[in-house]
Amino acid sequence: MVKPLSILETEELTYTYSTGTPFEKTAVDHVNLKIEKNCMVGVIGHTGSGKSTLMQHFNGLLRPTSGRVLLDGEDIWADKKKLRDVRFRVGLVFQYPEYQLFEETVWKDIAFGPKNMGLSDAEIRTRVLETAEMIGLEEELLERSPFALSGGQKRRAAIAGVMAMRPEILILDEPCAGLDPKGRNHLLRQICDYQKKTKSTVMLVSHSMEDAAAYTEKLLVMNQAKLFCYDDTPAVFRRTEELCSMGLRIPQIAGVMHTLRQKGYDLPEDIYTVEQARDAVLSLLRKGGGAAC
Amino acid sequence: MLKDITLGQYFPIDSVLHRMDPRFKIIETMLFIVLLFMGSSFWILALGAVFVLLARQLSNIPMKMIWKSVKPILHILAVTAVLNLLFIDDGDVLFQWKLLKVTEGGITTSLFMMIRIVLLIIGSSLLTYTTSPILLTDAIESLLSPLKRVKFPVHEMAMMMSIALRFIPTLLEETDKIMSAQKARGATLDNGKLTERAKALIPILIPLFVSAFRRAEELATAMECRCYRGGEGRTRLRTLKAAPRDYIGFAVCLLFLAAAAVLNILL
Do B121 and B49 share a structural domain? Predict the structure, then answer.
């Protein structure tokens, strides 16, 4: 198998808050990572495990206390003048991004990033329209004030503002926080579609194991400032006990399947979404199985 | 980062001065300022210096912090000193160059002014070093309460002050977040011409104002939900109570003031 090319790497990345004061705290502790191109990555970890701090290193908002961040093999801090380009190549959407909307119209707000990149008006125009379509903002909304939109629409507009820069890596910090379940799934599906369409890498910070299982290919698990593991999603969820011990869990449906297996039902391992579970149970019933009890 | 800016300069340790009633401390600081302006003799300043040293001793505030409070006004001090030196025409001329001349009176006045300002700053920063902002507003409310008779909204004013103080760190954190978010979209904040820099503030100020208004509204609703209806009949968690040491401190203060008055008459 050909090893997929990595785009983002970290070498012994460490970050300490308030060094030299009594409040000193290491938020990221010697993290070594290799993130592949064209990949949907989930980032999970307990609150305060250092996920958000780690993400802010990827686009150079925070400078590592020690260690390096490499984008395409180049240290992003090697040339400070290029740091701005790094931010265009690694897009970061913060939690509750709708609070950063500021322009008169949604259009202008989405165009803010591309404009900073120095793109031509025509290019900006195509990008705004394309992105709005991908994220599900109707064209007539684009001429409205971002403050007149509904909560979900505001969120979409803010995410579109970063997507429109077409970053090679898009990082979203809990993009679904505070949305209703239907809005969540809808938004996640659109983000997935965006990833497939642009063949970029998307990193999704999430607290929902269900979302992680359903939408990501690989999982990055942080625990107490250290990288616990970075592996294929099913492989991570196989380590049930370890995940539970650090305050995380496996998707609920995986727990149900696990219990059924223990009761003697012949169900395959590696079932992490409701759809997979449905298919497995149906095929078992069709086989007339389940006679274990 | 913005978070590192210290606001208010409360220095949280335990000392006699920290434990004193903030109302007394405010009045005493005022009396101290009066003392400094009572006369133009160096003896008055010496008295003020003794008072400040005594207060410092009681406060346990490290000398380093005292120096930190004086540092920001050093250039103001220098300007006053130079102005006094050049423009006061009093006594023997010591040095002259074209229109500019330095006189004996000029030297004494500029020295006098410098010492007075330094004492003033140290004295008032001892108040803020030893009193938390919340206690200060409580004390101001209590001291201004007689104004209620003339329908001055004392409680409302104090409440506004404490809310403002409470939200400064929150808004700072928010600014930090918004700045990061706009930087992530390629906003440049720290270079370019003045007009460009001013323009670059728009993406930060607008979300900040929007969020400040949102927070204000949420806070107002939350207060109403808890039946807040102004200061009338409201009890407090921390009641200000004068202890013997407060009266002693006040007496000492008056003694210093009396001594200054006597000096003024004698000299």
Answer: yes
Residue B180 to residue A102, Cβ atoms within 8 A: no
Interface contact A102, partner B, CB < 8 A? yes
pLDDT single digits (tens) B156-176: 888 898 888 888 888 888 999
Residues 6+ apart with CB under 8 A from A137: A106, A153, A156, A157, A160
One domain, residues B26 and B125: yes
Same domain (yes/no): B182, B77: no
Residue in the block written with tokens 């059924």: A260
CB within 8 Å: B207 and A99: yes
Asked, for residue A97, whether it belongs to a domain, the answer is: yes
The verdict on B125 and B150 lying in the same domain is: no
Question: Cβ contact (<8 Å) for A113 and B186?
Answer: yes
Q: Rounded to whole angstroms, how far apart are CA atoms B141 and B145?
A: 6
Q: What is the pLDDT of residue B241?
A: 87
CB A192 within 8 A of CB A40: yes
- B184 and A92 within 8 Å at the Cβ level: the answer is yes
Residues of A in contact with B182 (CB under 8 A): 100
Selected residues 39-98 of chain A with any CB under 8 Å from a CB in chain B: 56, 59, 61, 84, 87-88, 91-94, 97
Per the structure, how many domains does chain B have? 2
With CB atoms and an 8 Å threshold, state whether A117 touches B186.
yes
In a domain, residue B76? The reply is yes
The pLDDT value recorded for residue A239 is 87
Task: Answer yes or no: do B118 and B161 share one domain.
Answer: no
Please tell me what DSSP assigns to residue B10. -
Summarize pLDDT for A68-120 with one digit per residue, the tens.
999 998 899 988 888 889 999 999 999 999 998 999 999 999 999 999 999 99
d(CA A97, CA A159): 7
Q: In terms of residue numbers, what domain contains A276?
A: 251-293
A97: closest CA of chain B, how far (Å)? 8
Q: How confident is the model at residue B119 (pLDDT cuts 50, 70, 90)?
A: very high
Nearest residue of A to residue B4, measured between CA atoms: A18
Contact predicate A96/B177, CB 8 Å: no
> Of A201, A233, A265, which residue is a domain's last?
A233
A148 and A282 inside one domain: no
Of A94, A161, A165, nearest to B177 by CB-CB distance is A94
Q: What is the chain B residue with the closest CA to A91?
A: B184
Q: Count contacts between A and B (CB, < 8 Å).
A: 55
Q: Which domain holds residue B74?
A: 8-131+240-266
The count of structural domains within chain A is 2
A167 CB near a chain B CB, below 8 Å?
Answer: no
Residues B79 and B168 in one domain: no
A246 within some domain: no
Identify the CA nearest to B186 among candidates A124, A236, A222.
Answer: A124
Helix ranges (DSSP H) in chain B: 16-19, 22-36, 42-59, 63-70, 74-87, 104-130, 133-144, 154-184, 194-200, 202-225, 244-266
Query: CB distance B186–A88 less than 8 Å?
Result: yes
Residue A202 lies in a domain: yes
Quick one: closest CA in A to B178, which residue?
A100
- For chain A, residues with pLDDT lower than 50 are 1, 292-293
